[in-house]
Write a structure and sequence with these properties.
alpha/beta; six-stranded mixed beta sheet; 18 helices; globular; binds pyridoxal-5'-phosphate
């Protein structure tokens, strides 16, 4: 399988070639030349497979330049019950992404039972093992540089800790993450993990990462890498649980299922789109946003209008606080008939700070063929949804999942199962749960007192030159 760029101007590459990189040289995102197809007979054979075997059935079609035995070993090491152990009562860790029935035809798909209690572990854990494998094979090393406001940084660090050939330099805004998130990251004592607390806000951290990455000489010499949400390895790992969720709530392949996805960078729901393109019988893909509703606006109007970081709201579902959706280009490439010239023209407007309107050329009319629906949620909705879920279903959900559930209920068909993706456990966002319910959610026993562990981090100023020097010192 070869991978092409959404902007049509980069040479086709293999899976291993694109795994460690970010954007294609022409500024686009990589996608396979065509999506692997699963027939009715394939689906029947996949029904009932363990998570790891299902992952192999899917990932081997995308990562076809990794020998089967090696890929099997990587997958078996990644999707183990002891890694996804933070299950709710009545769920089995061996399912990796267990479902929880709320009522008839309404389910949660728990994606957040991994080490950092958010769905990003599902993909990041695989990436850690894939990176280590490819780097070892090629005798290479990498220094991953990233910026985080919480979930991405912790998922990356827990995936990369102790991995051969990999160091992680993670910038976060000093004293701006929750106490729990800070403790999760800073309590790691692994020598290959460097936490840098920047005296600034998240955007300052992101600007430093951009400045360092734009220095091509430094980037090459210090082998600076990234694990951001556009990484193709992360997307394919996420395709797997749509299949797992589908099989969990159906008995036969004639049934259709809808999924509701709390969305920010469009990475999670992009995987749902790809699962659908591969033949999984998905009815609707419901995109749920918070007050940062750039995606909801697009799916309602056909206008894509990124907001700029100055117009991004800080909300109580903070992992969805985005100004533009970095994976959205992948879906639009498919929507415009995989026309790289067209996609390139649209994003030249976006990259210049503008917007585009897909009504004018009739593309928006085709949205229905792809099953997309959308809605948004605000703080009051989220609090009410958390209260409703607690009283109606005796289940405590986090703020992001609440956005998903709120919008799911607006787009439900009585006879089609609706699966809401649970993207974080409530313990991760305690303060909001206390606000909604008057008491804190249960925290997994293993994480009790995590705030009291000794912390390992360095405080630095908003200064890209100083950060480069820091990386030079630590890698020499
Ligand atoms: C990252 C994240 C999201 C948004 O996912 P995208 O792939 O960026 O759309 C939603 N919820 C939680 C808890 C997250 O960490």
């Amino acid at each position: 399988m070869k991978y092409i760029s959404t902007r049509g101007q980069s040479p086709a590459q293999t899976f291993s070639q694109i795994l460690l990189g970010g954007l294609a040289p022409d500024g686009g995102l990589y996608l396979p030349e065509s999506y692997p197809q699963f027939t009715d007979a394939d689906l029947t054979a996949m029904r009932g497979l363990s998570y790891a075997d299902l992952a192999f059935a899917i990932l081997s079609r995308f990562a076809d330049d990794i020998p089967s035995a090696d890929l099997t070993a990587i997958i078996d090491k990644t999707y183990r019950a002891d890694v996804y152990a933070y299950t709710r009562a009545g769920q089995h860790a061996a399912d990796i992404t267990p479902t929880l029935k709320l009522e008839d035809n309404l389910y949660l798909l728990s994606l957040s039972n991994g080490p950092t209690l958010a769905f990003k572990d599902m993909a990041m854990q695989l990436l850690g093992n894939l990176f280590e494998y490819v780097l070892t094979k090629e005798g290479k090393t990498t220094n991953i540089l990233g910026a985080t406001s919480g979930d991405t940084g912790s998922a990356a660090e827990y995936a990369m800790r102790g991995k051969k050939g990999i160091r992680v330099f993670m910038l976060s805004p000093h004293k701006k993450m929750s106490r729990f998130q800070t403790a999760q990251m800073f309590s790691l004592q692994d020598e290959n993990i460097y936490n840098i607390a920047v005296n600034g806000v998240f955007d300052d951290c992101q600007d430093i990462v951009k400045a360092v990455s734009n220095d091509a000489d430094f980037k090459a010499q210090y082998k600076i890498g990234a694990v951001n949400s556009i990484n193709w390895g992360r997307i394919i790992a996420q395709v797997v649980y749509y299949f797992k969720g589908y099989f969990a709530v159906t008995n036969n392949n004639a049934q259709k299922v809808s999924f509701a996805v709390p969305s920010g960078n469009f990475g999670n729901v992009c995987a749902g789109h790809i699962a659908r393109m591969m033949g999984l019988p998905i009815d609707k893909l419901v995109v749920a946003t918070n007050e940062n509703d750039v995606l909801d606006e697009f799916f309602k109007t056909g206008v894509y209008r990124p907001r700029g970081s100055a117009n991004t709201y800080h909300t109580s579902s903070p992992s969805m606080d985005i100004s533009k959706a970095s994976n959205f280009e992948r879906f639009v490439f498919d929507l415009v008939g995989r026309d790289g010239v067209k996609t390139s023209a649209l994003w030249s407007k976006v990259d210049a700070g503008g917007s585009f309107d897909l009504n004018t050329e009739g593309y928006f009319a085709k949205i229905a063929d792809y099953g997309f629906m959308s809605g948004s949620s605000n703080h009051a909705d989220r609090m009410q949804t958390i209260r409703d879920a607690a009283s109606k279903y005796q289940v405590i959900i986090d703020t992001h999942t609440a956005d998903g559930l709120k919008v799911a209920l607006e787009h439900r068909d009585v006879d089609v199962p609706m699966v809401v993706l649970e993207t974080a456990l409530p313990a991760k966002f305690e303060d909001s749960i206390v606000e909604a319910l008057g008491h804190a959610p249960e925290r997994p026993a293993a994480l009790d007192g995590i705030e009291n562990l000794s912390q390992r981090f360095d405080v630095m100023e908003v200064d890209a030159v100083a950060i480069k020097q820091y990386i030079m010192d630590k890698t020499s």
